[in-house]
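Quarterly update from the structural biology core.
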Amino acid sequence: MSEDLNLKILQEVRRLADAVERLARPAPAVNDWSAADCFVWVPANLKLQPVPRPNRVALSLIRGVDHVRDILHENTLRFAEGFAANNVLLWGARGMGKSSLVKAVHADVRASTSHALKLVEVHREDISTLPALLEILTSVEHRVILFCDDLSFDHDDTAYKSLKAALDGGIEGRPDNVLFYATSNRRHLLPRNMMENEQSTAINPSEAVEEKVSLSDRFGLWLGFHKCSQDDYLTMIDGYAQYFDLGVERETLHYEALQWATTRGGRSGRVAWQYIQDLAGRLRKSLYQA
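Predicted structure, tokenized:
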């Protein structure tokens, strides 16, 4: 065999090896649970990415949702202490602090107990990878809340079946050290027309609807968030202004805040925070939280 032929064969083997290496799945990452209290799930390499500085506000700043706040806090505290707790679906009006409440309650419970409670965010598009994540968490000594923000499913989306199994289905069931919190604008997570389409095309329409609605039933707690009143909105504004020491007269503060809400087309916790950001910027005051 000629030297040129040997060289060509060697080059071809290397090319094929490089191609296989590019196609191969990256080796699982070594996850360091001591790196942070909050993580983001990265399924591509089975990594839990630490988040040293989570984007969250103090629990005391979340106003107008006292009842659901207390329920979520108690459920989270029981879980952190090793007692029975429920998966939670926080649903309802946009901008009323659903995701902020989850992150704030986690921080408050974590700070007030000696238990290493971790929060892991799972992006909506990664729901189908939950089995791989649960396999990792089964052997972890920490108690972990899996958090999915703005969870919903559209027509022809079958990922909800993976979520149903991960919540409490399957032969293994959900690990005792794992709880699932999700936020959504929809109480049943699926659009009404999707359920109606399933009902109209099914042999047994009622069973088709029950199959879709049963996803929400996997959450033991449904916490509803509704549009806030003007008094609740102004209470949020007062809380922010006092917490960040903005030093604006109450009458002026309320007048500007209401004007701001008018331009935004409604009142909510998100609108209140956006106004406070604008006000602090005009006053050249920092909203940085250490």
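Strands lie at 38-42, 47-50, 88-92, 117-121, 143-148, 178-184, 221-225.
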